[in-house]
């Protein structure tokens, strides 16, 4: 007899994927990630202009994405750019929006 697929003895292996999904579970953060997939790297000012929301709000969302390991920063002179740090996220977002929507 085989054990059922739903055993709760190793729920810790679900912590990291659940945290990634939690970090993506806001429309602004999903939009930021999709924008980074298209543009590859971008600074807060550009995101703020595109999203039409305050810079402080964009920064708060970026902090959540950084905390989850979804985005990281690259310094270019005085400018700080954000890039995707976890390529698994691209597959998740493509599954939600379709590949064409994420690359155009």
How would you describe this structure to a colleague?
- The protein has helices spanning 15-24, 27-39, 44-51, 55-67, 88-97, 99-103; strands spanning 71-76, 79-84.
- The protein has one domain (24-103): Winged helix-like DNA-binding domain superfamily/Winged helix DNA-binding domain (Arc Repressor Mutant, subunit A), CATH 1.10.10.
- α3 (44-51) crosses α4.
- 57% of the residues lie in helices and 12% in strands.
- The chain has a two-stranded antiparallel sheet.
- β1 (71-76) and β2 form a beta hairpin.
- It is mainly alpha-helical and 104 residues long.
- The protein contains 6 helices and 2 strands.
- This is Winged helix-turn-helix transcriptional regulator.
Summary tags:
104 residues; mainly alpha; Arc Repressor Mutant, subunit A; 6 helices; 12% strand; elongated
Brief sketch in words of this structure:
It comes from Saccharibacillus brassicae. This protein has about 100 residues and is mainly alpha-helical.
């Amino acid at each position: 007899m085989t054990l059922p697929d739903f055993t709760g003895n190793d729920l810790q292996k679900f912590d990291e994927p659940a945290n990634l999904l939690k970090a993506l579970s806001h429309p602004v953060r999903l939009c930021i990630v999709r924008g980074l997939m298209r543009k590859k790297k971008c600074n807060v000012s550009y995101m703020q202009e595109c999203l039409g929301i305050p810079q402080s709000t964009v920064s708060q969302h970026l902090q959540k994405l950084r905390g989850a390991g979804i985005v990281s920063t690259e310094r270019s002179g005085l400018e700080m750019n954000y890039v995707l740090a976890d390529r698994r996220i691209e597959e998740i977002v493509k599954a939600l929006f379709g590949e064409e929507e994420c690359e155009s």
